[in-house]
User: Fold this.
Amino acid sequence: MRYSAESLRLPVNWLDYVILASYFAVVLGIGVAARRSVRTSLDFFLSGRSLPAWITGLAFVAANLGATEILGMAANGAQYGVYTVHWYWIGAIPAMVFLGLVMMPFYYGSRVGSVPEFLLRRFGPASHLLSSVIFAVSSVLIAGVNLYALALVLRALLGWPQGVAIVVAGLFVLAYITLGGLSSAIYNEVLQFFVILAALVPLTAVGLARVGGPGGLWDALSAERGEDFLSAWGGTGIGHANPLGANWLTIVLGLGFVMSFGYWTTNFAEVQRALSAKDLGAARRTPLIAAFPKLLVPLVVVVPGLIALVLEPSLGRAGGGLSYNDAIPVLMRDLLPNGMLGVAVTGLLAAFMAGMAANVSSFNTVFTSDIWRAYVRPGRPDAYYLATGRVVTALGVFAGMGTAFIASSFSNIMNYLQTLFSFFNVPLFAVFVIGMFWRRATTAAGFWGLLSGTAAAMVNYFWLYRRGVIGIPTDQGANFVSSIVAFAVAAVVMLVVSLVTEPRPAGALTGLVYGTAAAPVEGGTAWYRRPAPLGWGAVLLAALCYVPFSL
Amino acid sequence: MKSAFDIRRVIGGLFTGYGLLLTAAGLAASDADLRKAQGVNVNLWAGLGMLAFGGLFLWLSRRPADPAPPGEGPGDGEG
Assistant:
């Protein structure tokens, strides 16, 4: 993601600044108002487990709809074409439904406060500490990516120097999380979600009008890039070359199964939103409600990427000065008048902050309750941990400012992010899913499975791929393969270690392993509030969405 | 959650404000602005859309907020 301030500068005027400033005034106001409702550490970290499902559901999808997602997926749309829909329909929906239908009863029902805490209950302290540390490291790295990307956009769009932008944006996120804790972050995510949509929907509509509607877009792209560019599966046979550098098997297994399940079911920045719901029914509905807007996100993210390719043919070409990452900013510059432009800039900046805030608020929860409270300073009064949470938030933001400078050394942020996910989330998912479904999995198996899976993904990436030992055409293809390798290694190690070590006593596993809990309570009587119809409805819709792009 | 902190009111208020600003900008749009977007008055239409959206949320927020008391929710009889 490289912006050059010369080639892309938005013509913002006072009206745009008024819109931007009033948004941030409201955000800070929410922080101040939320502070009044924060009395205990539970309030701060899990919003007192009091939020209704529609709020947590929108926060769930908004936490994912960060700006790296918006800019990155529009860039992928312009670069890879319609293949990008795989990240949504096979790479998100099935995993979100699985989280809501299958995993949430164990998460919410066991009353854990965080994802690593579940590992403590299931596998004991060694796996717990390992996963907490891995998680803390990865969330600071990812927060840095968000902050860096935010600074790039501020510099390119508004002309702020990068260092100033990083510090100002970081301090802003710090202010509203420290004031209001998770409630503040979650309420802001909901607000940001609507502002982002208010920016993207008109942008897409005007863009489509400019290229002559969906038909005009289709004709222009198929004439220039060929039919496969507008097909989800064309050219993905094993051995065929395609722009994505992946075949149907690595798409289904690597992206659709291990990467996506790893991200959506164990990424605490996501799961935390569901854990803060007011009851189990609302917690299960959280990812299911989120699945429906997620189905439609490509319409306002991938489609603008395609439009940008038609309107600005130099996009991504060497010497043009514009990278694929510029797809959305270019459309904003070319299509939106002052006023709407301000809303779009606000939406983009809000999206970066949503991503950053999600990382920081989950980092402070895991650091405070899973590392500090569990191993370093146990047994203090609640107020102590509340204060610790606020201090750790500040440390997390400052660490994020540091890692923002690490992120600035990578040329493609989306690929860097997916690499981090394959290292950190995929092995965790393997340990989780085996621990949840196989009673025999032992304490030692959890620890060694996690460690070996993480190591295997890193070996595959740094040694086999980077050193060219095996030939994989693209970074994305390598990430898919790393994920499959990490999952397979973690699973085999867990199987072998479990068979040679003592199983945990059955009494210690109640409510943590499939078949040991009471039947999950339904969330309500109306059919549209029950998890199963919601979940299967989302999966069915995702399958239907593929139809027009597969024939 | 206190009513002053009702997110529906915040969303409604913010979008009503944006709607007013954009509608006004749309009514005062110059020819250059219109040409930029193929003759579509983006600010006017988006502004009217936001006014409707903001109004909807303000209207929704007149109903009482979610009845669950802060702190311990009703729960599902789980562990």
About this structure: Chain B touches chain A at residues 1-2, 4-5, 7, 10-11, 13-15, 17-18, 21-22, 25-26, 29, 33, 36-38, 40, 42-43, 45-47, 49-50, 53, 66, 68, 70-79 (CB under 8 Å).
